[in-house]
Amino acid sequence: MRILFISSTRIGDAVLSTGLLDHLIHRHPGAEVVVACGPAAEGVFARMPNRVRTILLRKHRWKLHWLRLWRQVAGTRWDLVVDLRASAFAFTVWAGRRVVMRGGRHPGHRLAQLGALLGLAPPPLPVAWTAPEDRARAAALLPGGGAWIGLGPTANWAGKVWPPERFVALFEALTGPAGPLPGARAAVLGGPGAMERDMAAPVLAALGGRAVDLVGRLALPEAAAVLARCALFVGNDSGLMHLSAAAGTPTLGLFGPSRVEEYGPSGPRAAAAVAPDSPALGSMAGLTLETALAAAQGLLAAKVAA
After folding, report:
1. Could you tell me which of 75, 105, 78, 100 has the C-alpha nearest to residue 6?
2. With a threshold of 0.85, does the pTM exceed it?
3. Matching fold, domains 2-117 and 132-305
4. In CATH, what is the architecture of 2-117?
């Protein structure tokens, strides 16, 4: 069986789509899967079983990226084409079955929207694929002997960023003598680029030797392996937040202007803390330390109970 799976440009949306892929791989164990996605999301699928290749959809003027994709796949007879980009592309290639997401805004969580494409309710949870070399590097970066808390103080735009001093205060409350993870250290993660490094810099400076700086230094499968070693991840609405939830780590997503009802973290142990004036005013400043701390403690308590 040959499957063409056209996924997203953004990392978070690509991570959410992994549940569909995981379902298809288990349903069709011998399937050969070709993934088409944006360059930023390539690492999401790098360790995926049954993946024959990944085709990068780099945007070009006049939508020529679709023509370039067509030239690479039109000669194959596909048993299934899944298009999450709401394009007409699936109808330009030979396919036994086509599943195409409709464009525009849809009600409900993105995961439920994806599951509905294949009639899956409840929808399959996202997964994070890693290889032994990713897990070995993660073990070297975050050695055992104590708990680690992953912190994601960055996002793709400043309006989604919780104030850095509150990240620091939350870490102090969680790791102090009376906290649920006394003595834990921090793994600070973020994407590449000067903007994300600037966002993370105040947190790294405040935590000093208690933090490992991993901002922009990990491929996505390595980041997934690092997150899987953390006792807790707290981060802004971002691709890293979704990757952490997919890795099975207790994950607290921090939300203000973005749509928590559509993009809240989805995983076996995930929760969101939401600014009370969101989304009407969309200010991350409205999300208090007390609200985030209570949500984090609840996640950790649920893990112990499980």
Report:
1. 100
2. yes
3. yes
4. 3-Layer(aba) Sandwich (3.40)
